[in-house]
Design goal:
Lon proteolytic domain-containing protein, Ribsml_uS5_D2-typ_fold_subgr, Lon_proteolytic, two-stranded antiparallel ribbon, 263 residues, Ribosomal Protein S5, domain 2, Lon_Prtase, single chain
């Protein structure tokens, strides 16, 4: 025997699968990571009680000002991110939604990812040392540089490491500081030839930089538009493509002579 449903009953029955589907979508894990401004560290100073840059075999100088490398903090690779999390972060200026594969290598465990990031950091430090010593025409066999930065992985501190080594050894080349006494922050990979590469997450890194007192931010030129999208008030962007362009811009900014590139 069949009975007919009233219209309200029929609508209620049809709505059940839709409600279930929406609930599933809201709470189901998605392949995204959520990121926010992370810590910064002055490479000219100490991090967790240990000097970031230690140099032997050459005379070093006392520096003023700061060179701050910047980071982002992302959810762990095994953290489940729901649609609700994504929507909440999407409309927040201090958070970002990023494809998980853009933050972490796919198909790897958390331990493997940590090992990968540590290896990238070591390669970045080696390239930074080589680029700095080559820029200053110093022999790497005579000058030993040790770089230590706890709890940070990846290659994005390369440019700031390089500038820190140069500032400690030569400053601006005329007896002054490369920073001009300013709080300068930035990001960017570097290779042994001094070429600066893009890194990602720059809009969040500018916020971290300004939060920690920076007034100047060095950004890979290719990422100028991203850096400008949420640029904090009081932070000046300087685009760079090479180590030389970064040094030249900082020297020009400090001396007031010559042009300083802008995004």
């Amino acid at each position: 025997m069949l009975s007919r449903l009233t219209r309200p009953q029929a609508l209620a029955v049809c709505a059940l699968p839709v409600v279930a589907l929406i609930a599933t979508a809201v709470f189901a894990p998605l392949p995204f990571s959520l990121a926010q401004p992370g810590m910064t560290a002055n490479v000219l100073g100490e991090n967790k009680g240990t000097p970031v840059i230690t140099i032997s075999g050459a005379k070093t100088r006392t520096t003023s000002g700061q060179l701050r490398m910047t980071t982002i903090e992302a959810t762990n690779p095994d953290t489940q991110v729901s649609l609700g999390d994504v929507l909440s972060a999407w409309f927040a200026t201090d958070r970002a939604v990023m494809p998980r594969d853009a933050v972490y290598p796919s198909g790897e465990t958390t331990k493997q990812i940590e090992q990968h990031n540590s290896a990238q950091m070591k390669e970045s430090q080696d390239a930074a040392t080589e680029a700095a010593l080559d820029y200053l025409h110093l022999n790497g066999k005579d000058v030993k540089v040790t770089l230590k930065l706890a709890d940070v992985g990846g290659p994005s501190a390369g440019l700031l490491f390089t500038l820190g080594i140069i500032d400690k050894l030569d400053g601006n080349g005329s007896g002054g500081d490369l920073t001009g006494g300013r709080n300068v922050a930035g990001t960017g990979t570097i290779d042994a030839d001094g070429k600066v590469g893009a890194v990602g997450g720059v809009a969040l890194k500018t916020q971290a930089a300004r939060r920690d007192g920076a007034t100047v931010f060095l950004v890979p030129k290719a990422e100028c538009s991203d850096a400008k999208s949420e640029l904090p008030k009081g932070l000046r962007l300087i685009p760079v493509t090479t180590l030389k362009s970064a040094v030249d811009s900082l020297v020009a900014l400090e001396s007031g002579k010559g042009s300083v590139a802008a995004c």
